[in-house]
Amino acid sequence: MAKDLEKRASLLRRDSVHGPFDGTIMVDAEARTLTVNGNVIQVIYADSPSEIDYTQYAIDNAVIVDNTGIWRDEEGLGQHLQCKGAAKALLTAPGKGDIKNIVYGINHESIGDSDLIVSAASCTTNAIVPVLKVLNDEYGVVNGHVETVHAYTNDQNLIDNYHKGDRRGRSAALNMVLTETGAAKAVSKALPELEGKLTGNAIRVPIPNVSMAILNLTLDKTTDSVALNDYLRRMSIESAYQKQIDFVDSAEVVSSDFVGNRHAGIVDAKATIANGHHAVIYVWYDNEFGYSCQVVRILQQMSNVRFLKLPR
């Protein structure tokens, strides 16, 4: 256990994508804790949720964040709620069945006290829904296609090997891998008005982080690139979606420039194409950190945490 904790501390200290952690990290092997910047993190080892009693660690009324991807329905995630000390569960993947799929900033207010299991949707859904929301409000989205150019993930193989998923068995470091994405269909769970209007695909590419969604849309109202960009820029600054939508207008930016960006998505103004009813919008997103920030915002909503922020 001691070596495991030391390894986890080392992985936090040095991150290949996000760089070194500029803070204090202490390991207590006997207590099985990491203390990071003075915050105690209890490490619990278990093969299934049924083995855990959180109250043994002085943890009660906890929100369990499940990022394993093993369970995505109420039955599977409900196992967490059977544990002593657990109150709610938050899934970091699209939920199945009647589980609410939440994109913070869009439909987080719909989370009620009776919602014990909630989904934070996917990183791609979080990136595109705020942009689609403001576009639909102003121009009306008739239909469209979402193409995701996504960094490879831990689910893929580094070298060719068996994989149950189509194409994902091929080396992630050497190939662009065409795969499916549920992001387009998942949009309607946060924006019901776009039900059935979007299709989607994804291409996994050989970079470790930062992805892009390309929104190819038919709009109800006509526009051009200048007007569309001006509107999206104002939405990123003046609207209620300031934390979700960022905006960049530079011909020099590339994917690595957005590592560590806290927004759900970043509109690339220089790539925008708009002519009449047709528009193509390019949205960058840090599929690790930006999405994690959205998850934390939902976690605070579920926990009724309200930090004082000035100016109000």
UniProtKB/TrEMBL annotation:
Keywords: Oxidoreductase. PANTHER family: GLYCERALDEHYDE 3-PHOSPHATE DEHYDROGENASE NAD(P) BINDING DOMAIN-CONTAINING PROTEIN, GLYCERALDEHYDE-3-PHOSPHATE DEHYDROGENASE. Residues 1-123 form the Glyceraldehyde 3-phosphate dehydrogenase NAD(P) binding domain. It holds the Pfam family Gp_dh_N. InterPro entries: GlycerAld/Erythrose_P_DH, GlycerAld_3-P_DH_AS, GlycerAld_3-P_DH_cat, GlycerAld_3-P_DH_NAD(P)-bd, NAD(P)-bd_dom_sf. Belongs to the glyceraldehyde-3-phosphate dehydrogenase family. It comes from the Bacteria. SMART domains: Gp_dh_N. Gene3D superfamilies: Dihydrodipicolinate Reductase, domain 2, NAD(P)-binding Rossmann-like Domain. This is Glyceraldehyde 3-phosphate dehydrogenase NAD(P) binding domain-containing protein. It comes from Vreelandella olivaria.
